[in-house]
């Protein structure tokens, strides 16, 4: 799996610019390795990051491959993973969940608008997903692309829930705060409840504290409060309430597979790793009420007539 658009590039890990010459790169590597070495009081995780950075850009061949977005050890080039992809062929014939909407569509379009605006008027971007261009963009722009990728990954996971579940993506809401997307990423209905989901990649770890998510990468955001407001705005016209509020993040950004952080207006608030999402929904979100078959059908009928897409 390629790195997130928010991940530090090897150049950032080593503390040099992307146009540093080979000699400067080598000096930076030795300095970073010395400072990060556990035997000299450094951090083991940082030490391994420095070593990995050198593997990616330490030789002319590796550096050229990385700059093209196809570094060693990547399952696929970054560009191929960051750009929109064709539907993947299915490997089994099990029924999929009913799905509506375009996951990641709003965020993709927002990214394209922002990257073109940042590049400047009159500048033609032959490839808005070029790895060098993405890495050079401001963090807020890279965050939008990271969110689009996260939403698409979540959608692939939710589709595997099976025919008992209905999933809506990119639902319009008027409850978004300043600078936040005017949408709810995903809404899932099935026998284990009505679950509002936000797909996120903040580029750093998050955890619950007093019912809200905290983390250095959040920059003042209050994800649970904001998700609750979006979910209420989306479901209120249908006269239904979500049973769970779920924020899903990359596996490395959550300390445990699933963490319950209390409840908001009766809906369980949960942080879950991406790889755990589908199984958590099938098993039932801890603390969230389940829906009987007749209740689920009634809720689905109401939602179908009330929901709007972003």
Automatic annotation (TrEMBL):
Sequence segments annotated as region (Disordered): 68-100
PROSITE patterns registered for this protein in UniProt: DNAJ_2, NERD
Transmembrane segments annotated in the record for this chain: none
InterPro entries: Diphthamide-biosynth_chaperone, DnaJ_domain, J_dom_sf, NERD
Residue intervals of the NERD domain: 146-257
Domain J: 9-70
Top-rank lineage group of the source organism: Bacteria
Name of this protein: Molecular chaperone DnaJ
Protein's organism: Agromyces tropicus
């Amino acid at each position: 799996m390629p790195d997130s658009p928010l991940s530090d590039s090897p150049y950032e890990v080593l503390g040099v610019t992307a146009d540093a010459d080979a000699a400067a790169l080598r000096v930076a590597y030795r300095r970073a390795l010395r400072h990060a070495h556990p035997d000299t009081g450094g951090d083991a995780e940082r030490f391994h990051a420095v070593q990995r950075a050198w593997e990616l850009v330490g030789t002319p061949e590796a550096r050229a491959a990385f700059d093209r977005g196809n570094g060693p050890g990547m399952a696929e080039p970054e560009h191929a993973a960051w750009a929109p992809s064709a539907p993947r062929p299915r490997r089994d014939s099990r029924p999929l969940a009913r799905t509506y909407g375009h996951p990641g569509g709003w965020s993709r379009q927002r990214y394209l608008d922002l990257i073109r605006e940042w590049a400047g008027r009159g500048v033609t971007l032959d490839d808005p997903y070029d790895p060098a261009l993405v890495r050079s963009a401001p963090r807020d722009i890279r965050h939008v692309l990271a969110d689009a990728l996260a939403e698409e990954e979540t959608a692939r996971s939710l589709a595997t829930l099976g025919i008992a579940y209905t999933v809506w993506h990119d639902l319009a809401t008027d409850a978004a705060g300043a600078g936040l997307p005017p949408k709810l990423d995903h809404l899932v209905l099935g026998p284990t409840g009505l679950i509002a989901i936000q797909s996120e990649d903040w580029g750093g770890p998050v955890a619950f504290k007093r019912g809200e998510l905290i983390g250095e990468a959040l920059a003042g955001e209050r994800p649970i409060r904001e998700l609750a407001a979006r979910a209420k705005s989306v479901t209120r016209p249908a006269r239904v309430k979500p049973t769970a509020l779920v924020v899903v993040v990359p596996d490395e950004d959550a300390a445990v597979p699933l963490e319950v952080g209390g409840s908001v207006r009766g809906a369980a608030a949960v942080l879950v790793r991406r790889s755990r999402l589908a199984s958590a929904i099938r098993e039932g979100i801890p603390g969230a009420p389940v829906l009987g078959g007749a209740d689920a059908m009634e809720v689905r009928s109401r939602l179908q007539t009330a929901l709007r897409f972003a």
